[in-house]
Design brief:
The structure holds two protein chains of two kinds. Chain A contains eight helices and 20 strands. Classes of the chains: A alpha+beta, B alpha/beta.
Chain lengths: 538, 143
């Protein structure tokens, strides 16, 4: 202990001596060292400068690459349920049970700036309703020819509707899904060439769009693939303050592909083929039903033909036209939007007609309640097409009635009637026809589902969870599906004195609009869909 | 006279300070001082930042935006463009996902916007008025 203390006491003295010796020895040496230190600092400074420059360069290189590649995405998730056990909205896969697939979808868009005026864009979308298969809805190269004119080559959305180009981006519109009365064309993209031209006149901004190409799709109505050839269209947008107006015109030639066995198109085709086969065999006297065979003789003997109908499901090169007009008013608080559209399909009895909707919403801070009325009906031209098909079957029934009636009027004096009578009695002819009634019934049912109408009321609310996320809740009531009356000639009472000589309404089939009912005719007079979704963009 | 001058100086200094204090909550739209644009209307600025127009008074411009969450950005879009962040995102998502437009590039803060404007004469940005420096011209002040 004592020893240590002594050392400590001596320490300052020692230090003093040593420093004195250093001072004495090297003033010049110190200056030299200082100089060296300064050089060292300068070197380090230079190196730091170099590093800084490198970091800066790196950063700009990274930001350059980041600037050139843009990744954006969107997402929707939720659930929807329909309140009718026998009805289904196959376009979205919405049924009696809660389904999440009907709402779920996700998309990622990559845009790469190839050069100052050329961009490559791909949008990959995965939807629950398509079993989450990833599909490229957009995949194109765009060239900004001038600051106002852009040319696109590749896969693009067909501008059918006001919202058609961002149909999958739930965040961008108020509903969980756009009104099905109008937004129902089962195809979205075309492969070809597109042009976009922007211009202004005073306070109005205009945008003209044109495209030409080919596309393929899938129709739920026929459950078949189809191809649109020589498809082209144009649309014009006009914007002025809170107002947006749009008109569009599209045209194409449609080829329906093979209808898969068991699908709706197949059933329609089978019902038609079945009916035609029956008519044919009747005419040949080979129905396999001895009671019916004499009927053919009656038909021809009375100068009538056994009617056949066209099987239109395998049509090709059918001209289609789609026209639409829309407006939107959005001043930040009040949102009003409406749209009408007309689809025409020449020579094909697929449902074609008019649809439209009107939506009004009002923003209260983060909440926006909204209401929508929508309506849709197949037009007269389309309905007439269907009816002309049905008339074939009515013709057959009428023919039978005429034949029976003729027998009672003319008696066996008419050779045809005499022959028929020789082969079988009128009563057995009628009974035989009744046994074949299923063929007629299927045929009639299959075709009457192509006459459609419906209207709907939607009440919904949107809540801004964050600037990039919205939550939506809505209920839609669908009604006014209409009904088809199937006429038939009923034969009652004594064949010798038929009591009913005119076609009467034998059956009423309730329509189901855009929905499908299984079995046919089991749909209710109204139904509803309840939906919830979370929509985000990122 | 001397006293009066002093008083005037004191008052004007105080006034400037007060002005500065108020100005700090003010968003201004700016361009490079060498730009031939001297003023712009709210409509013109709104359209430039929504990608609907690429010139002001015949002079071509490029909008320079700020990062989401910045005070200046909130202020600017609320007062000048008249859109909430949700409305703005809905607006851009309609254009982005249809390939019809790209939102303006976002810069980190007021200082980075100023730096960019000093380098690029056609750039138009917005910053808090307190961040205005030499070489920058104010063409619009948010009310």
């Amino acid at each position: 202990m004592v020893k240590k203390k002594t050392y400590l006491a001596l320490l300052p003295l020692t230090l003093c001596f040593s420093s004195v010796s250093v001072l004495a020895a090297t003033t010049a040496d110190l200056e030299k060292r200082l100089e060296q230190q300064e050089k060292q600092i300068k070197r380090l400074e230079n190196r730091l400068k170099g590093t800084r420059a490198a970091v800066k360069e790196n950063r700009s290189r990274i930001s350059d690459a980041a600037d050139r590649l843009k990744i954006n995405g969107f997402f929707s998730g939720g659930a929807a349920q329909m309140d009718s056990p026998t009805m289904e909205l196959s376009l979205y896969g919405i049924e009696d049970n809660y389904t999440t697939d009907s709402v779920s979808k996700m998309g990622v868009q990559f845009t790469f700036e190839v050069s100052d005026s050329i961009d490559a864009t791909a949008q990959l979308v995965s939807k629950g309703v398509n079993d989450y298969n990833v599909e490229a809805e957009w995949a194109y190269l765009s060239w900004e020819a001038t600051s106002d004119l852009t040319v696109r080559i590749g896969r693009q959305r067909i501008p059918y509707y006001l919202l058609s180009e961002y149909l999958d981006v739930g965040y961008a519109y108020p509903w969980v899904r756009p009104p099905i009365e109008l937004y129902n064309i089962p195809l979205s993209s075309t492969d070809g060439l597109g042009l976009l031209y922007d211009f202004s006149l005073g306070d109005w901004n205009f945008s003209v769009q044109g495209y030409a190409g080919q596309s393929s799709g899938f129709t739920d109505q026929l459950e078949a693939d189809f191809i649109l050839n020589q498809a082209w269209g144009t649309s014009l947008f006009a914007e002025h303050g809170a107002w947006t107006f749009r008109v569009g015109y599209n045209r194409s030639h449609l080829d329906v592909g093979d209808v898969p066995i068991g699908g709706k198109g197949y059933l329609l085709a089978a019902a038609t083929d079945g009916y035609n086969d029956f008519s044919q065999s009747l005419e040949n006297g080979t129905t396999g039903n001895a009671a019916l065979d004499p009927l053919a003789g009656l038909f021809t003997g009375l100068g009538r033909q056994v009617p056949t109908v066209n099987n239109m499901t395998d049509d090709t090169n059918v001209k289609t036209e789609y026209q639409s007009a829309a407006f939107m008013y959005d001043d930040g608080n009040l949102l009003v939007m409406g749209e009408i559209a007309n689809l025409r399909i020449e020579d094909l009895s697929a449902p074609a007609g008019d649809g439209g909707y009107l939506t009004v919403g009002y923003r209260f801070g983060k909440w926006m309640p909204h209401v929508t009325f929508a309506k849709y009906y197949t037009d007269k031209e389309s309905d007439d097409n269907v009816r002309s098909q049905l008339e074939g079957s009515l013709g057959l029934q009428q023919g039978v009635f005429d034949a029976v009636y003729a027998q009672t009027l003319i008696g066996t004096g008419n050779p045809a009637v005499a022959q028929a009578t020789a082969q079988g009695t009128v009563d057995s002819v009628v009974a035989g026809l009744a046994s074949q009634g299923l063929v007629l019934q299927e045929f009639q049912e299959a075709w009457t589902t192509l006459i459609q109408q419906q209207q709907s009321y939607t009440l919904g609310i949107v809540y801004d969870v964050s600037p990039r996320v919205k939550a939506k809740l809505e209920a839609t009531h669908y009604e006014d599906f209409g009904k088809s009356e199937i006429e038939s000639t009923s034969y009652t009472g004594n064949p010798a004195a038929p009591t009913n000589a005119t076609p009467t309404i034998a059956r009423e089939i309730y329509g189901t609009g855009r929905f499908s009912a299984d079995p046919v005719g089991s749909g209710k007079k109204h139904t509803a869909i309840y939906s919830f979704s979370i929509d985000a963009v990122f | 006279m001397n006293m009066k001058l002093k008083l005037a100086r004191v008052l004007s200094t105080a006034g400037l300070m007060m002005a500065a204090a108020f100005a700090s909550a003010e968003v201004v739209v700016i361009v490079n001082a060498n730009s031939s644009i001297n003023s712009a209307t709210a409509d013109e600025i709104q359209q430039v930042f929504l990608g609907k127009r690429n010139e002001i008074g015949g002079v071509s411009v490029t909008a320079v935006d700020q990062a989401e969450g910045n005070e200046a950005r909130k202020e600017f879009y609320q007062k000048v463009v008249d859109k909430t962040p949700a409305q703005l995102n809905a607006y851009w998502s309609r254009l982005i996902f249809t390939g019809k437009g790209k939102p303006p590039k976002q810069y980190f803060d007021d200082a980075e916007v100023v730096e960019t404007l000093l380098e690029e004469e056609d750039a138009v940005g917005y910053i808090d008025s307190s961040a205005v420096t030499e070489g920058i011209k104010v063409i619009y002040t948010a009310q």
